[in-house]
Amino acid sequence: MKKCLASIILVFVLAGCSSTVEPGTKALVGSWEWVESSGGLAGTTTSPSSTASSRQIVITATTIQYYLDGSLLQTDSYSIQTKKSIFGGDKQMLVYESGRPSQSFEVDDNKLFLNDECNDCYQSEYDRK
C-alpha cells in the first residue's frame, strides 16, 4: 500500500513540474544565416548579394546575438510572449528587453521568418546553419 501511495504521489509531483523553456524557444535556438529582407515604405527586397554583406543571428534560450560580416554588433535579451499582431490574430513574439520593437516569428523546418510588428517595416528570412 505504501508503494502504491508513493507512486501516486510521485506521478502528481512530476506532473506538476513545469519547464522553464517557453513554447517556441526550442525551435528558435541555433545559428541562422540571413537570406533576405523585404518591406519598408518602398517595398524593397535586400539580400546578401544586393548588399554585399552577410548577416547572422545566434539565438539561445534567453539572448539573440546579431552579426554583420562575422563581427558581433549587438546582444539582446528577449522573452517569448503571445500578443495581438498587426497582421491579425494572436502570434508568438520576440519581446526585447532593450525596448526594440517586438517581432512575430515562424519556424518552418530549417527556415526562420521574423516579422517586424510595425507598419512599413520588414520581414526577414533566415536559414538554419
UniProtKB/TrEMBL annotation:
Which residues are the signal sequence here? 1-23
For this UniProt record, give its keywords in alphabetical order, as a comma-separated list.
Signal
Name of the protein described by the UniProt record: Lipocalin-like domain-containing protein
